[in-house]
Amino acid sequence: MGKDLVNLAKRGGVTGIRLGGAERDACGRAAAGYGEAVVAPLRVVSKLPLDELWNEAGTIAATKVGPVGTDEIRKLLRSAPVRFVVADVSEQLRWVEGSDSFDWWKSELKPRLAEPEDAKAGVDLDEWPDAYGYVAYEWRLEDGAVVIAAEKWH
Questions:
Q1: Domain residue spans of the chain
Q2: Which three-class secondary structure state does DSSP give residue 130?
Q3: Is the pLDDT of residue 24 over 80?
Q4: What is the mean pLDDT of the segment spanning 26-36?
């Protein structure tokens, strides 16, 4: 792979590119067992539920606490700053932070959130506004910060 393609990948001009060798060392971390890496800014969600979180810099050290519903999210929002991350298959993770968090929670996530017990039993997507919804999981970063991963189902 040429240097120009690696630079294009770093700028986000190529999607789904897999790198090996020197390009991997320059652009990303090796995927366990595969000897390849995906350029972090290009990484997309390939399956749900998530088993790790990432951003443009790479994988984030975080622990998945478990599923959360409306009441748990309300409590978390009252106790500390909460960041949200939206996971939609074939899309990049979308981080919702700062002053946008509460507004996004009220207008987007809350009306479409499947409570954990409902998600286990199965949910009819037609019952949600615009026929899509979310299952939410609490994650804790190494520094104790709270992230709610909203996994989008449609």
A1: 3-43, 62-153
A2: helix
A3: no
A4: 39
